[in-house]
Amino acid sequence: MQKSNVILNKTIYIVGALMSLFHIVALVFYPLPANIFRTVHLMFVLTIIYLTHPSSGSEKAKIGVVNIILLLGGLLSCVYIAIEMNAMLTRGGIWTTNLDIILGIILVVVVLEATRRTNGLALPLIAVAFIVYGFLGQYIPGMLGHKGYSLKRIITTLFTYDGIFGTALDTAATYVVMFVIFAAFLEKTGAGNTFLDLAKAVAGRSIGGVAKMAVIACALFGTISGSAVACVAGVGSIIVPLMMKMNYSNLFSASVISSASIGAQIMPPIMASGAFLMAEFLGVPFLEIIKAAFIPALLYFFTIWISIDANARKLNLRGLTEEEVPRTKDVLKKDGLILLPLVLLVILLVVFKLSAITCAFYSMVASIAVCYIDKNRDMSITKIIETLASSAKGIASVACACACAGIVIGIINLTGLGLKISTLIISVSGGRIIFGLLLSMITAIIFGMGLPTTVSYLLCVSVLAPVLIEMGVLPLAAHMFIFYFACLSGITPPVALAAYTGASLAGTNPITTATESCKLAIIAFFIPYMFVYNNAFLMQGNILQIGWAVIVGVFTCYSLSAILQGWYIINLNKTYRFLFLITSVLLLVQNKILDTLGIISFIILSIVLYMTYKKRKTGIEIQEAK
To answer: How crowded is the C-beta side of 336, counted as CA atoms within 13 Å?
Structure first.
């Protein structure tokens, strides 16, 4: 038994390392035809999953008969389609052979099972429901019905570039793979600890400093992770106990880390792999997506920051002592080299405008190089191979989910369901953008329940983006709108995976934690509407338009925080909170005249509250003097 486990672990190690090396070679040095590259990618993915993930959570991964049968079936199907892809496309579902059908069914089953093991039951069930819809459309009344498709036609769709081997899998096999490998190397250099030290140095001494550390750490962590749950687990395991030690309530501690970690998904450059998919769908450079996401991400973190500050001042919570906080200068002197790969990534993307894959590769090489320059870091050949092997596991779960999402997308395209839902939404909304946006928001949040953000975005964008674009929404804004609400499903009840993880760290109720997280992240529920109606938030327009959008956004953040936290300069009574509500509405409408009135209203309220604060302070000083 022990010997078989050793063999299994060595096999996983070798396959993982070979998988990462294959992608580096194929993407950077020796490009392969799509039919070869995508099928080999999926073969590696299925091998990793069936070797590392047991059929149920109660047992350990093992080389069992069922695993071997499923794995061999999947590999055989991939080899077949690599050889027969062009011929199968030529047959077009009319002259489909029996072997096409048999191996196609096998691959669909293998992908569904692999997805269940890595991502849970929700996505495979959705995929099965769509397959059934493809067969039985003639029995569905009304607009959503269709003529029904034969097994040959459906298998041809799912077994080719329209289904499993489509755009979703291709994006996972290219952009996602390279950035996951880069992130793995960056993490091995100790970047995670450096980010925490920097967060402590920058915000540790300020009021509410411990909680603010979480905001900075999550923003930095998001540049290499893009996973809310991973961010909650990684940063929260350190920050949450420290927050509770500093007299923050368990609920607030869990909510801060949950809401801040959602920012890891919307923070460029990785954005939970959504940036790569968006660039692919829109046909624009990767840099354009990063630019568009930058201002909304900053406003998101800024709102959480000022909400933490308001809460800390209201409760009179101090920061860390000077002895507990390192100096920024010392952190940079000690670990500054670790940040060079990220700096290089930005320079290559922004200045030299190289492709995202090339930038990720050079940054990965830089992360290895800094470990040889800094003698305190260990990056031996053995450790390089270990990192390549471990990164493959992270790639596999995302790639498998993308393959499964390809099944859904294939059926949507085959049946014309996307166009039908588009027509339905336009009909229900009366063609008015605001109602179309509301329906799209609800759909994206529902689809995101229990699904990874990448998959939720993939499923929603194929249906919802055409609707919004037809209504007149800028394509970039439409995609970003859908992506934002796919991310926010991580903290929106009843299924909020990021909030559940935060609640487990702090010992709080998951639903209550999710509700409180939504309050802290309130701006994120409005930012998508703001950038749909004012594209300057996405850096579309001239410098004056973008500057004005940022100013309006900052005032909006403060105003919304004042309403929900009940504090701005002083504790706010119901009257002041109502006045801030009116101010927020004026700012959110995205009309220059109303925006200006909102800013004036905010300034007047600030002056009145400051005068009240000074008056109270003077009264207290007189009382103390007496």
So the answer is: 7
